[in-house]
Amino acid sequence: MLGSLWRFAVRTAAGAVALWVVIKLIDGISLSFPTTPLYQDGQHDNLLTFLAVAAIIVVLNATVKPVLKLLGLPLTIITLGLFSLVINAVIMLLAEYVSDLIGFGLRIETFGAAFWGAIVLALVNWVLGPITGLLGAKKD
């Protein structure tokens, strides 16, 4: 149980870094921060917002993404795997929807922004993969 929680925490931290890179690189994706303090005096609100949205993406990747991959398997085969990029973009759009429901402000203006944002997110997570692996985020 503790190992699973640790993996979730490491993946969330890596996802927050990746999300920061996505917001810096991709026009059309932004994160609005809360107007009321989340924690005490509000000095850590930006970090908490990034971590919360990254946690949403991690949970969606663990729960919804396998179902979407199964449903999209025929298209993934026909497109030689390229449809998985569309699935990743849909996960980004779902993360926007869920974060809006919870009160965090992930904003994605177009599907194209979600598509390129998902690619950058995957690339940054791939680069961070060896680090998260060393920290124990990979399943044995």
UniProtKB/TrEMBL annotation:
InterPro entries: Phage_holin_4_2 (IPR007165). It comes from the Bacteria. The chain crosses the membrane at residues 12-35, 47-64, 71-95, 115-137. This is Hypothetical membrane protein. Keywords: Membrane, Transmembrane, Transmembrane helix. PANTHER family: SLR0284 PROTEIN.
